[in-house]
């Protein structure tokens, strides 16, 4: 009894941890984190492999661009489809398909017939699969925690996102250096399978699944209406534009420049660079997660964008 009261007191003092008391959220958070680690590790691995195959930094850029382009192509469709299907089922299926793709790439690599075109195709298909992660995760979150825990839950997911980038890059680089790229990708495939398993254990009655027609024509009309709405709201299209530029100017150097630099510069401590990013994310996560609500979240978000820009500039 005393131990239980102490546990409740800890969660009361640290609102950030409250969502972790929910079994469903913990399983979802674990699967979400593993999915991010898989995606980032994969991009890191094939970026390095593409550079080693061709000796060209342009190849690495094309690989990452194909991932992002396919993600953008299907993102709106993924959001519409998520409204009409079980979000839990979508997350499970996408992770299993990701595993199949990764295992296929491993077979190609170990057979000795790998070409840069295989890496291009793999990056494109992984981008398509990853486009479903965001909409499905966003839609299922309110069903896993109470409304007052949303800020803390989102903070934990934000930390998982940054942790996935940091951990994925470190995880990928260590596996590649100590084993081989194909073995690293095999581990990623198994990680994605385990993520699907975690989400399969979630027991939730999903609500707000739209019972509307699933015809292609109807979905395309819905997409067009969404585009019209986004254009009509100044802060919305401006935010979309800002974050599109952010992907090019900040995440480009982070995801492509650093891995390539680690191949060229022997003295570069890549893990230390990524760990510093993780520590910064941890500090912000703890700070925001302790708050019950964030006033003027848009202003906080834009200030974070400015801080990122200053970091890259320095």
Number of strands: 0
Fraction in helix: over 70%
What would you report as the Rg, rounded to the nearest angstrom? 20 Å
Uncertain runs with pLDDT below 50, 5 residues or more? 1-7
Arithmetic mean pLDDT: 78
User: Which structural class matches the secondary elements?
Assistant: mainly alpha
Span between N and C termini? 53 Å
The total count of helices amounts to 13
Main sheet summary: none
- Gross morphology is globular
Order of SSEs: HHHHHHHHHHHHH
Strand content: under 5%
Question: What does this 3D model show about the protein?
Answer:
- The chain is built from 13 helices and no strands.
- The chain has 314 residues and is mostly helical.
Question: What characteristics describe this protein?
Answer:
single chain, mainly alpha, 80% helix, disordered N terminus, 314 residues
Spell out the blueprint of helices and strands.
Elements: H1 2-13, H2 23-54, H3 57-82, H4 87-110, H5 116-130, H6 133-140, H7 150-178, H8 181-200, H9 216-232, H10 234-249, H11 251-264, H12 270-289, H13 297-313
Helix pairs in contact: 2-3, 2-5, 2-7, 2-8, 2-11, 3-5, 3-6, 3-9, 3-11, 4-5, 4-6, 4-8, 7-8, 7-12
Compact summary:
The chain is mainly alpha-helical and 314 residues long. The protein is 80% helix and 0% strand. The longest helix is centred in the N-terminal third of the chain and has 32 residues, at 23-54.
